[in-house]
Amino acid sequence: MKNRLLLGALLIGTASLFTACSDDNDSNPTLIQPTEFTLNTPTYIDQTVDLKNTEALQLSWSQPKYTADNAPLQVTYQIQVSPTNSFTVSTAQAEADKEGKTVADYANIARTTTMCKYSLLSADLDKALQTIGKWQAAEDVPAIQNVFVRIHAYISENGKQLNSIISTNEVKLSVSPYFEIMKEADPILWYMVGSCIGSAEWDNGGDASIGKGLVPLFKQANEKYDKATGAGVIAFTGFFPQGGEFKFIKVPGNWDDDKQINYTKVKDAPSYIEDKGDFHNIGIAQSGYYTIRMNTTEGKEEVTFEKYEKDVKVYEQLCVAGTMNEWGDSDMIPVWTLAGENHVWSFVVKGADHMKVKTKGSWDTNWGYRDGLQGEGDKDGNLVIPGKDTDKYLLLFNDITGDYLLIKQK
Prior knowledge:
By secondary structure, the chain is mostly beta strands. It is built from 2 helices and 30 strands.
């Protein structure tokens, strides 16, 4: 059983944020720029922590003095780790170097906090050390690894940093890491649901509704996604009929407000969409082909609309051809039937299948492999379904853009 390493006294920072109005600015505290704050010494400082069998390492620190009377402010804290006590090049900076010449010596832990305490997940720490060390196999992993931890702090409002970053002292820990095959987070998905979406009006019945009343936006081949969270820009291009209404939901089957996006999150809303009803549905004021883009970064979600100006071909029937049917034609199921013009298709495929999407009775138009569970098809190569032949995936395909998505079925 995994254990949880506990720290003695934890100093808890409050998360209230001062707000200023035109008539009370004089009464609000004045921000000052501190130069230091302290990362406390954990009780396990003299132990070697077995990361594989430990759930989390508890950390705590003092609150930086940002006002004369040390008033509580909403401070963002980020944990940084380094095996060498050098904090000059982050893993993100190294990954951005396409030539591969930049060498990282520290990593930022993706999940931040506004409290003066933190549960550093052992899995997150191990992944950071593996990324910095570039371990490729179990034999590359040291039995014992020193790791230096420090905390960054700054004040932010609406995602904007308001002051300079300050750092704590470094605390040296001893850990026993392990090797794990690195897997990037899948891109975050959001789904459309409404009176003009898919084949069933306002059908948000959970996973069973995906490919019916729930139609996802797709990962984009020219976009980058956060490797830890999967946040980035997803998109969908299709035909939307006048009078249709819809919104976006994040979790199939969940109607909670914090899991929805409606008209209020549309940036620079164009005239061909409108705010509909008490629930602020997105209404289609003018029929047309539109491209929807969504930033899925938590707390910064927003949607944009633009007209799709390229010529669009309507296919009477698309098929899959591959090892599952000896490269014959198996009809795909049209998904976008409420809107009057379908450009989204579905088909259930098995793991280890090799396949293409194609027009019925012809190879003149076909789409093949690009990149894994989500991507954009082209004529080069085949789409290779991951997993074993006992695995099943729902394939969703957009014939305007070539975007596809494989969703594993239970």
